[in-house]
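does this look right to u?? zinc ion version
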Amino acid sequence: MGYEIKQLWARRDRYTAGGNSKKYIVVHNTASTASAYDEARNLHNNPGRSSFHYTLDGEDIYQCVHDYDTAWAVGKWSGTVAYIRNNESISIEVCSPGTEFTQAEKDQLRWLVHDLMSAYGIPASRVVRHWDCHSGRKECPKFYAGSNNAAWTKLHAYITSGEEDEVTDKDIAKIAQEVWNYQIGSEGKMHYNNTPAWQHLSFAHYDTARLYQGMTDTSDPTGRDVKMDDHDHIKWLAAGQAKQNEVLDSIVETLASIKGEVESLKANKAE
Ligand SMILES: [Zn+2]
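got this back:
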């Protein structure tokens, strides 16, 4: 069901607030052996003149700058001509010393690129390398830099061909189990707590769970009560009857509408 994007925000003095038209996605390598967490922590803790939106290492994905903010990632140096600017691009740093990306990194990159392409209507032709951004031709990502780089052609085809996440029966069983595992509190009511299980539920998981429970309250999930009546409903879900196709269809439909809402919220926020 996709990957989790962790957030560790960059210091306010190393990016420009707002202004990003999000027309391009730019792929970089970090040119170091540091992990994504190390890279994110560096932006979070230390002053500096560069930044990026996302970093990934095959294990974790961190976001450090909001998509609508302008990271300092592809700026040209003097005497060179800019083709793609910071304020029209979302930069992804792959943690790599300059060698070929690992399969795990390629898979994460493909997922993230697909997500961003869908969110902002970015075509594959605007998924580029740092190397493509100005006439100074920064050797980044190193393994994939240069004209007619066959490795880049192949990587580009791969990372721009991602697919939508599908909700599987296994996902639903997992959601049901997580919902079922929530603690039963006082007064015979089940309470949503800040359990690790809850924290790992994505927004989409949450709404899927809500759909199944027949609840109408869409307010903040924490601290919210669920009626005892819902237990049978949840049990029913956990028992696997949710495998019926019509139910699956309605989940997919609901997720799609939620995604649409989130995207329009994102777009509004960016303006
Ligand atoms: Zn770069």
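Residues 5-159 form a domain with the Lysozyme-like fold (CATH 3.40.80.10). idk if thats expected tbh
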